[in-house]
Amino acid sequence: MYGPNRQFAEQYRKVGVTTSVVDADPHKLVALLLAGACERIRTAEASLQRNDQPRKGKAIGEACAIVGHLNGSLDHEAGGEIAANLSALYDFIIMRLTEANLHNDPTALKEALGLVMEIDSAWNAIPADHRQVRPVAAP
């Protein structure tokens, strides 16, 4: 009964996400990635509560990939100490996500989510007039 409608809704959602990414400036792209990481970690938390191990593992893997991409996009030359500190924080987040996956540890998921949310909050607090076309040290 809901099959075709659900399929159309999913296609519409994908078009909306694609449009957001295509139209986004570098600051917005980082914000979208941070939001995506938070969403995946929340999915992992819910999956862990339901004992849905495959979904938990997939969500954590996706969150790690996003955080890894953010880490890889840091400009250490231009970002200096800020970039180095963010890189260490991203490494720690990935470590906690990995531990959460291996040990079914909801505390590690909460910790990782809290850290990503703090980075997201700080990133979104940057005033528009201080955002550059190409970020110096994207989180």
Automatic annotation (TrEMBL):
Gene3D superfamilies: Flagellar protein FliS. Keywords: Bacterial flagellum biogenesis, Cell projection, Chaperone, Cilium, Cytoplasm, Flagellum. CDD domains: FliS. InterPro entries: FliS, FliS_sf. It comes from the Bacteria. It is found in: Cytoplasm, Cytosol. Belongs to the FliS family. This is Flagellar secretion chaperone FliS. It comes from Stenotrophomonas bentonitica. The lineage of its organism: Bacteria, Pseudomonadati, Pseudomonadota, Gammaproteobacteria, Lysobacterales.
